[in-house]
């Protein structure tokens, strides 16, 4: 039996269910966004060549330049459709862009400079500049601001809960208390460091012809300093210039970026699973959303879906970023085409990452800290003060105020594998051979006050 066909549907959830959350990336990392950047590169190259008066060309007037720049500034559905129709014939995406620019030059009465279109360029001259522009703009205008927003939300929560004592769990077992604020600050600090690295990254392009030698350029105009002209052109676009390449720009800047984005995703994944765990332990209560359903059969449930969605999408993004980095670092001899298909998934990788960031940002605003639960958890685990007691005893021994031998073993015998309450610990401390001041400090200590400098460390953000 043949399944009836549906009306045309998006195959990717990024273009369907989650489109609203990631649509900002499409302005840059879609096929249309790439083609708009290609037109920009082609147009700006024409303008520069004409301005330099190469081959007798006359510099364009300001009005003519604005008319040409309108080709990419006003790039829209008409150009998208025109390119799709032309590429169906050329079977070459960059060649279709060249034909579009030539067609528009004719309509503007600029046929005289038509041959400056794509002059001495290989497709990868146009592509490397276009990918550098689109990825840079997508990261700086869409993805990085969302990452910064998550960091800001984390930092706000860290400051708000800097003094909220909580029992730590190293290896899943009760451990020296911290504060919820300090634990969230750790994530904010880690993410801020990687975000700074990404922000400082370079976006490189080449513009040196078929095999990176400027061979055609030199034959056409031997007296022109083509490397310097190319550098001027690329840097004028707001990106960095790679002078030493094969036919392609070597993509190392992309490898660095995607590895850093994957690194950020790993930290975010760690955040998502930790917050999920804190919710499951009751440390955070989730704020009910009016009309929302947690379970189709259990009315009481509020599921931590924001953090689960983020976790899954970070795993997908991380896999794609890893593939991009491992594939793009290699190109056989002077050129192969593995990068062409690979780079078309840059938007997919950033899309899943952006979707995760959006869920985390929302999720962090939909939780409330249950301080009473944290305090109850601390009060049930007085044995974590064993570290404090044995450390103070050691200090007292060094100071000559105690004759105790092997304080670690003493506390291990008292506390390991068993629960010890506050009164029992107080009685134990009173019987220790240590100075009065030390004894008073330990008797006054509780799990909730044994947090060291945790609240102050939040101010390191």
From TrEMBL:
Entry keyword set: Lyase, Purine biosynthesis
InterPro entries for this protein: Fumarase/histidase_N, Fumarate_lyase_CS, Fumarate_lyase_fam, Fumarate_lyase_N, L-Aspartase-like, PurB_bact, PurB_C
Matching Pfam families: ASL_C, Lyase_1
Segments forming domain Adenylosuccinate lyase PurB C-terminal: 331-451
Pathway in which this enzyme or protein is active: Purine metabolism; AMP biosynthesis via de novo pathway; AMP from IMP: step 2/2; Purine metabolism; IMP biosynthesis via de novo pathway; 5-amino-1-(5-phospho-D-ribosyl)imidazole-4-carboxamide from 5-amino-1-(5-phospho-D-ribosyl)imidazole-4-carboxylate: step 2/2
Entry keyword annotation includes Lyase: yes
GO MF terms held by the record: N6-(1,2-dicarboxyethyl)AMP AMP-lyase (fumarate-forming) activity
UniProt KW Ribosomal protein keyword: no
Function description: Catalyzes two reactions in de novo purine nucleotide biosynthesis. Catalyzes the breakdown of 5-aminoimidazole- (N-succinylocarboxamide) ribotide (SAICAR or 2-[5-amino-1-(5-phospho-beta-D-ribosyl)imidazole-4-carboxamido]succinate) to 5-aminoimidazole-4-carboxamide ribotide (AICAR or 5-amino-1-(5-phospho-beta-D-ribosyl)imidazole-4-carboxamide) and fumarate, and of adenylosuccinate (ADS or N(6)-(1,2-dicarboxyethyl)-AMP) to adenosine monophosphate (AMP) and fumarate.
Protein name, as recorded: Adenylosuccinate lyase
Organism from which the protein derives: Microbacterium lacticum
